[in-house]
Design brief:
The protein has about 240 residues and is of the alpha+beta class. Helices cover about 35% and strands about 15% of the residues. The protein contains 10 helices and 7 strands. The strands form 2 sheets. The chain has a 5-stranded mixed β-sheet with strand order 2-1-5-3-4. Helix 7 packs across helix 10. The chain starts with a strand and ends in a 5-residue tail after the last helix.
Length: about 240
């Protein structure tokens, strides 16, 4: 193990440059530890985002050596190359400053395919019951743990090519709600994901699934939306 790390960190906004720092190397050191050391010990003007530090909030997602990752759960020993690191903001999002991106665009795309649950029961009604063994419930379970960290969005080449594309996270959310039998906006949601910026724009490259820190498969959910829409277009019951 080298004594020091040579760390290149993006500084500035959309138009900026990498600045190199020397950081002491320690056992079990995470990339977030490295960034925190730079901000607290070398340059207090460095801006970055984090909260829980234990892989629950996803706010510390950045691009490390060209790959979108949670920095709090990424150990330096996993990603350093000959004692060097390159840390940049997430791709496909506007840069506010340094390593901080503007997430509004990401979450606005959750809204477009009706990403909020809407039921038809009131507080006076009994709770709706969903059988855990049902196929629809299992489809929901496979994708529901998304915490909106943006790693999949920053990894998606289709978003890079066409910025209006809804992206893996928003479509994964749509997939979970389409399979929730309590939700009453199923048809409207399918219509919302059927447009040019929806599920059919996915090239099934699988980068979102490969890099998801929660080990979800947005690729599978997007494929499921495609199947439902195909069935519906052929006159079947989606």
């Amino acid at each position: 193990m080298t004594t020091n790390l040579r760390v290149k960190v993006w500084r500035g906004k959309e138009h900026g440059n990498f600045v190199t720092y020397e950081v002491p190397r320690h056992d079990s050191q995470t990339v977030l530890d490295v960034i925190t050391y730079i901000q607290r010990q070398i340059d207090r003007t460095l801006s970055y985002r984090f909260a829980c530090r234990v892989g629950m909030c996803g706010s510390c997602a950045m691009t490390v050596n060209g790959v979108a990752r949670w920095t709090c759960r990424t150990h330096v020993s996993q990603v350093s190359r000959d004692g060097e690191l390159e840390i940049a903001p997430l791709s496909n999002l506007p840069v506010i400053k340094d390593l901080v991106t503007d997430m509004r665009e990401f979450f606005d795309k959750w809204v477009r395919p009706l990403g909020r649950f809407k039921g038809n029961r009131t507080r006076r009604d009994d709770f709706a019951r969903v059988q855990p063994s049902s196929g629809a419930r299992q489809a929901v379970d496979a994708g529901i743990e998304c915490i909106g960290c943006g790693v999949c969005y920053g990894s998606c080449d289709v978003v890079t090519w066409r910025p209006d594309y809804l992206g893996p996270s928003a479509l994964n959310r749509a997939w979970t709600l389409v399979n929730d039998e309590r939700d009453i906006q199923r048809d409207e949601r399918l219509q919302a994901v059927a447009g040019d910026a929806g599920c059919h724009s996915c090239h099934t490259q699988g980068s979102c699934t490969e890099r998801c820190p929660k080990h979800l498969s947005p690729t599978a959910g997007i494929a499921g939306l495609k199947r439902l829409l195909l069935t519906k277009s052929m006159g079947g019951k989606a």
